[in-house]
Amino acid sequence: MLERKELSAVELTESVLARVEAVEPSIGAYVTVTADIARVQAAAADRLRAKGLGGPLTGIPICQKDVLATRGVRTTCGSRMLEDFVPPYDATVVRKLQEAGAVMIGKGNMDEFAMGSSTENSAFHPTRNPWDPARVPGGSSGGSAAAVAAGEALGATGSDTGGSIRQPAALCGIVGLKPTYGRVSRFGLVAFASSLDQIGPFGRSVHDCALLLQAMAGYDANDSTSVDAPVDDYAGALSGDVRGLRLGIPEEYFTADLDPAVRACIEEAIADLERAGATIVRGISLPSTPHALAVYYIIAPSEASANLARYDGVKFGYSYHDGGGMWEDMERTRQHGFGDEVKRRIMLGTYALSAGYYDAYYLKAQKVRTLIRQEFDRAFERCDLIVAPTTPTVAFRLGEKSDDPLQMYLSDIYTIPVNIAGLPGMSIPCGFAQGLPVGMQLIGRPFEETTLLRAGDAYQRLTVWHQRRPELAAMEAGS
Amino acid sequence: MSLTRDQVLHIAKLARMGVEEAEIEKFQRQLSQILDHFARLSEVDTENVPPTAYAVPLQNVARDDEPRQSYDRDKVLANAPMAEDGYFRVRAVLE
User: Fold this and answer.
1) What is this model's ipTM?
2) DSSP H or E run through A429
């Protein structure tokens, strides 16, 4: 519509800002709304389009997860620790999306330091699921996912360390893609677990995610873990054709933990893809899957305990300085600046890395990590993509799991192995159970995002799940 | 419980994390429960399995050591909780 000049970028941005104003009181997707910046960027987009310039993202309103540094705009990471932190630079993905013409509506709410699966761990306010405000949107990128689902943005960025893009995408009924480790620069991403973190897009459709990933992907000298490999033409790969594509179904992802109604949706989606010409390969085996959760909750907190050592109240962030001396100030800074889940993970990681426990926990986890990756490699000899549920259940209620960390962790059992192996994964809406969205997860070989996107797009051409919208008007009246 | 109260206090000390009296028992219970879940890893045979630190085979990535402009001092200190005369201000390290 922007291309055909039926709608200006300014009009589109104003309509999204009006939407934000109307639904934010019931959703809470944003930590900070950047309306002034959005208006300036939208006007610039219109000037470009008037000259016949710009690309597919020029003038498109997006939500940036508040884990990404934005120059001159506070970046809280959902934490009291960074409540007033204003970065002097933009994250590489923020800069790239800006250069592609995207309009920033605001900074998306999240679990503190991206640690959580419900966005209830935000130090500021929880985000609610647009499909049912009594339920969580998932996490940690819950604000980004809810913003897209509620029409408060057309696309969004997220970060995914153990499922933080795919799980909220599934719970909010949108598409979320975690690229291969190394595909997107993490310069300017507040670090959580550096061997697992990856940035990716959210969109209503696979096509939207392809356009966003195109702008985000690529090597960056500022991130030594970004991989210098050519970036494919993602939108160009969306042929709609899955004939001959081999889809592996891993038995370990269809166990007793899986809600039968969710399972039924996934089975139906697999049947749809088979009718479209894909070959279904049953009996793919990933036997170390049951150990992935333990591996993750050793490796991620260990890395987090090192990454979060920088919050000492000296260089930036919250600082307590009324104690008896330097050490007490540092301890109080971290006591008051961090929330409970962050404290738990720092303590877990500190323990796993401490003298006498390193071999039993951290080194052991790294060895099992090798086994998990090897099993995926072997599976991909028999298939091109793996199809699985994204989450074992639909969105749960606020407060339902907040007192039981282990139960909360279990909501990521199907997404965590993908990070451990560094693979690309995507969640796509594939139906509804108890009136709430269900996500299907596609997992691919390293750097084969095109295969994920092609299969996901082909599926969306056959189905209407991604076109459904939550009835927000009814929700506003009812809650 | 796999963690004792003293161990919780020791970990908190290592992490430079202040904990309130009321939190100690809670963390002891929650962390023990999570550590108990980890115990299942000991069942996995990892004899002769090398550890994986990163999922992509990148090693010793270095860039050319070229001088470049850094941020202005004011910009860097803008987020400092305490600054004085162009420096970060810290509490005395040696009493």
Assistant:
1) 0.95
2) strand A425-433
Residue A354 CA to residue B10 CA, distance in Å, equals 10
Asked whether A101 and A62 are in contact (CB, 8 A), the reply is no
Q: What is the CATH number of the domain that holds A53?
A: 3.90.1300.10
State what percent of residues in chain A have pLDDT above 90. Answer: 94
Residue A397 lies inside a defined structural domain of this protein: no
Domains detected in chain B: 5-42 (1.10.20)
- Average pLDDT over chain A, rounded to an integer: 96
Residue A236 neighbours by CB distance under 10 Å:
10
Q: Does A228 map to a domain? A: yes
**What is d(CA B39, CA B82) in angstroms, rounded to the nearest whole number?**
45
Q: Which residues of A touch B46 (CB under 8 A)?
A: 364, 367-368, 371
The answer to whether residue A401 sits within a structural domain is no
The predicted-structure confidence for A142-161, as pLDDT tens digits, reads as follows 999 999 999 999 999 999 99
- Contact check, Cβ <8 Å, A297/B34: yes
B35-62: average pLDDT: 89
B92:A327 CB<8 A: no
Residues 46 through 65 of chain B touching chain A, CB cutoff 8 Å: 46, 49-56, 58, 61-63
Give the active site residue among A8, A141, A164, A288. Answer: A164
- Nearest residue, CB atoms, B56 vs list A295, A297, A422: A422
- Catalytic status, residue A354: no
Q: What is the pLDDT of residues B12-26, one digit of tens each?
A: 999 999 999 999 999
Instruction: Identify the pLDDT of residue B1.
Output: 67
Could you confirm whether A164 is annotated as catalytic? yes
CB pairs under 8 A between A and B: 169
Distance of CA A91 to the CA centre of its chain: 16
Given A8, A118, A140, A427, the catalytic residue:
A140
**Confidence (pLDDT) at A3:** 64
Across the interface, which of B17, B51, B58 has its CB nearest the CB of A347?
Answer: B17
Residue A337's Cα: distance from chain center in Å? 24
Tokens representing A175? 């598409």
